[in-house]
Amino acid sequence: MNFKIKLLTCSLCAVLAGVAACNSAGSGGGGVTLPGVRGGGGSNSAAVISADDKPLDVMTKAMRAQLDAKSYRAHVTTSTADGMTNKMVIEYAAPDSYHMTGEGAGGAGKGFKVEYVIAGGATYVKTPNAGWVKSPLDARAMINAFRDPKMLDELAKTADVKLVGPDTLDGAPMLVYEYTQNNPMGVKMKSTSKTWLSVADGLPRKTESEGEFNGTKTKTLVTMSDYNSDIKIESPVK
């Protein structure tokens, strides 16, 4: 059982690392003026981000805004070249609590379901054939490393970002940025990503990535929602 718990916790860390990397800050050139997407005065004076802003500044602000959010939900879908698929819903509540539910299937069609809770300084795992068990591994170390504001500069060193242009998502105006990363913070991962940032609040709403993690090619879709909503996460073991 301990081996299975360690395996599940390592898998959890990999997912969280991937989500953090998808939304990390990047570096790039100057802004580009695009029709209908402006900051400052005019009809779009309420906009928080602008196509005129430098991509580095926009992405850094987006990451900091996400770090400052008291809560959010992320829907993560990952597929690999060898036929593995994984879907996970991640809920976050400040300062360091997570609730994750995931399911997936391998190339042979064999499915799995798993649930995690990180709360009260501990990590818990639940599988279909067992109740909640406290994991001997602490996933908080990796999570806290990627949430550390001091790491933004380090993440920026591994990325090259450029503005793609304006778009809409669920009827809301967005700015889309594309960037590449190589081994962010020592994680053996290469990826090319597109991120949709809300013009209204500068927060990430969607990221599409293609990359390679530990020798495995992956495609990942992350959608973010419910920023600063009332999400409560408590330890499942009293």
The helix tally amounts to 4
The outline comes out as: globular
CATH domain fold name:
outer membrane lipoprotein receptor (LolB), chain A
Tell me what portion of residues adopts beta-strand conformation. 35-45%
Count of discrete structural domains: 1
What's the N-to-C terminus distance? 21 Å
The residue-averaged pLDDT reads 75
- Decide which structural class fits the backbone: alpha+beta
Widest sheet: strand ordering: 6-5-4-3-2-1-11-10-9-8-7
Number of strands: 11
CATH class type: Mainly Beta
The largest sheet, given as strand count, sense and whether it forms a barrel, is:
11 strands, antiparallel
Q: What's the CATH architecture name?
A: Clam
Helix content: 10-25%
The gyration radius over C-alpha positions equals 18 Å
Secondary structure topology:
Layout: H1 2-22, H2 55-68, E1 71-80, E2 85-93, E3 97-105, E4 111-119, E5 122-126, E6 132-134, H3 140-147, H4 152-156, E7 159-169, E8 172-182, E9 189-198, E10 204-213, E11 216-225
Antiparallel strand pairs: 1-2, 1-11, 2-3, 3-4, 4-5, 5-6, 7-8, 8-9, 9-10, 10-11
Helix pairs in contact: 1-3
